[in-house]
Amino acid sequence: MKKHSLPGIYLRGSVLALAVLAGSCATKKQTANQSLTLKTTTTPNGTVSTATTGAPKKEGIKKFSDLIPAKTKADSGLFNTYKVDGKYYYEIPDSLINREMLVVTRFVKTPGGLKTFGQQYGGEEINDQVWKWEKHDKQVFIRVPSYSLRADSTSDMYQSVKNSNLDAILASFEIKAFNKDTTGVLIDVTDFYNGDIAALGLSDDIKKAYKTMGVDNSRSYIDTIKSFPINIEAHTLKTYRAGESPTDNSIAAVTFELNTSMLLLPKVPMKYRIMDPRVGFFGQRQTDYGTNAQKALVTAYIHRWRLEPKDPAAYAKGELVEPKKQIVFYIDPATPKKWVPYLIQGVNDWQKAFEAAGFKNAITAKEAPTAKQDPQFSTEDARYSVIRYFASDVENAYGPHIADPRSGEILESHVGWYHNVMQLLRDWYLIQTAAVNPNARHAQFTDDQMGELIRFVSSHEVGHTLGLPHNFGSSYAYPVDSLRSKTFTDKHGTAPSIMDYARFNYIAQPGDGVTHLYPQIGEYDDWSIKWGYTWFAGNKTPEQEKEILAVWTNKNAGNPIYYFGRQGTSIDPRLQNEDLGDNAMKASAYGIANLKRILPNLEKWSYKKNEDYSDLNELYNEVLGQYYRYMGHVTTNIGGMNENFKTYDQKGPVYDFVSKERQREAALFLNQQLYTTPLWLINKAELAKFDNGVIINRIKAMQVSLLGNELTASRLARMYDNEAKNGANAYTVAQLLTDLHTGIFGTSKPDSYQRNLQRGYIENLKGLLNTDASFSFPGVSSAQLASWGFTPINIVLSDIRPMVRAELKKIDTGLPKGGDAMTAAHYADLHLRIKEALNPTRPIVNVGGGMGRGINDSKPAILNEKTGSMNCWPRTNVEN
């Protein structure tokens, strides 16, 4: 869903490691030696700088009783914590020195109007790190380990890796006292939690946006520090001096409530499971020097919860067994009561999938306990996974998870649920299904109907928290006409995986009798949970488990039901968001037929007594957006390649081109449905209620934008590659330009839409002829760019420009003479444009996107592996 805090990049079916960046946080106090101390100051941009101030004041180590009076009550737990005269102390036992702890900082409360920069609501994560408390002489340090390099402790390379992977120091503390039996040390953490520490405070984006200048201690405080058996929860209020405020600039400050959880990680990490790009899981990567490979090997582990059977013997016999520790989600007490049962059901729906892995009752959801039932419960507590409900007009939801960077074990999740996702669900369900679904023909749905849609979204987001990324290839498994079958859809829904972006069934036609119109947890989801969560007896190594899992995967290879298609590429037409079925042209034709039925009824179906026409305007825009999606789905077939990751054990290509017949089918579809002006999109009676003269330009802009998408240099590069490899079996650039020419110049008297399209075509050709079309991203190889869809090409030396030059001359030669005044002026203008393209005298202005990114040629898919999702519910922008 719409999360834009984006630190990781999706690479060939896996995800970059959960980032724990050594040295990324400024230190509050970092003493280099015992003769110098460091003074921290805050610069206008919020960064922390240090300066030496001379010899420190040496207080020395005191008796425990001098600092902690005998009557002081300890808050016992992971560390004993104490509050004395406004100061907070940690008593750190020696047994926990050098133990790894996961630290997660979240918002508790935020100011109103904070509506950008990723994190903005109570419950959302700001930062996570792993800490190790280290004792050295008279000091205690917090170190931040890095997991980018590894080697097994028994490996010859272990010490070498340690020598080149030093853990950064985040902060240092003087030892104030030893405890009574000298098995632990006492430190003062007051200044640490009150300070402007990056790991415990605002993100850089928010600091920059509001021009913060450090924490104002006079308006900040530690609210509570509470210790529990395996974690400590620190609740703080921080006021930052700020040049801007989301609410009132006269205050010159911005205030937040924050919670930092420090959770003890298992002493022995969970056994990792090696990632396979043929089965979709989020994961983490590292360079492993401890293998037998004759190179530094990049390994990847999937993210998954630790599920182990209570009764291993019964599990081995094939019986369903409960796990030792169940996955539990709590529903935020702030959630409207009527939606709670549906959110719970969305979680519980995954129980069946876990049965495929041999577990029963593996996952559940329940209402959070009240303060009376459990006064210690907190939705910010890192021990608990929670579905948080945000009072927000953002149309979004997202499913994050936090994993142990040593093993990939998922430790907790805080699903983000924005109130206004219901508005988006209403819009899409109406626009995509109202032609066949009377229940969708209303301005407001019943609670039962909205609840079922909430249940569907809940299941999707919980799938992310289980380690599952989007499976964009899933919906391709079902033939288009199967989605018109009531029997089929009642059993299968719209796709084999709820993790696809297969929203609602826009293919079913009136009279088909289809009533099950949305996705459900399907066959692929059962398979992926089985693959990721099956427990193997006999203490097998990860490498031995990999061999067993590879046999399973090879057995399912070739069956589209079990196909995983990654997010983050525009080369494979099967891997598209919002699409259904195995033929985009056929599916889109059905979808357009339904839009033609829906559009004339929008005013009636959006009626609200005594309300203005803003809802009609919104739904009309959704019709335009849905049409735009269909055209994008079709376009991706042109120059498309099928991507099927394989191992040496499997036959056949990993990459092969979409067939010539399918590519030409797509080009001719666009001629018919796009370049032949879709006048049905203009309903004058409804437009009169809200359109102030922009709709015609918007339709023209859509046509030109989509034309530009068809003519991207990367798409043409793949077509030339296809021609070089497959000759007459390829759909060529020459054939594409011939088909485009026929579709765009097929009339002797063009109307205003066709004139606009002809000008757009020439401008796109002009861009290809005279503008650099190269793509580059710092540190990204050409092979990686190609995997995203930015297929590299040297356009100056390529065959593109000769073909474009020939096409421009063909157009110029074929321009008719005469005609009415408008037509004659139009052709005269085209002649001048072509002349300018062939002999440029001014900078080229790209108006159609031919050199840039059109729909489905978007920028690389960048994912937040903490959230497990990216922009799950995007609306399509149809403006040019």
Automatic annotation (TrEMBL):
Cross-referenced PANTHER family, in alphabetical order? PEPTIDASE M1A AND M12B (PTHR38478), ZINC DEPENDENT METALLOPROTEASE DOMAIN LIPOPROTEIN (PTHR38478:SF1)
The keyword Nucleotide-binding is annotated on this UniProt entry: no
Q: What phylogenetic lineage does the species belong to?
A: Bacteria, Pseudomonadati, Bacteroidota, Sphingobacteriia, Sphingobacteriales
Protein name, per record: Zinc-dependent metalloprotease
Q: What species does this protein belong to?
A: Mucilaginibacter gossypiicola
Q: Which UniProt keywords apply?
A: Signal
Q: Which SUPFAM superfamilies match?
A: Metalloproteases ('zincins'), catalytic domain
User: Which CDD domains does this one have?
Assistant: ZnMc_MMP_like_2
**Where do the EcxA zinc-binding domain residues begin and end?**
443-748
Q: Tell me the first and last residues of the signal peptide.
A: 1-19
Q: Which residues form the DUF5118 domain?
A: 61-110
Domain (DUF5117) ranges: 123-310
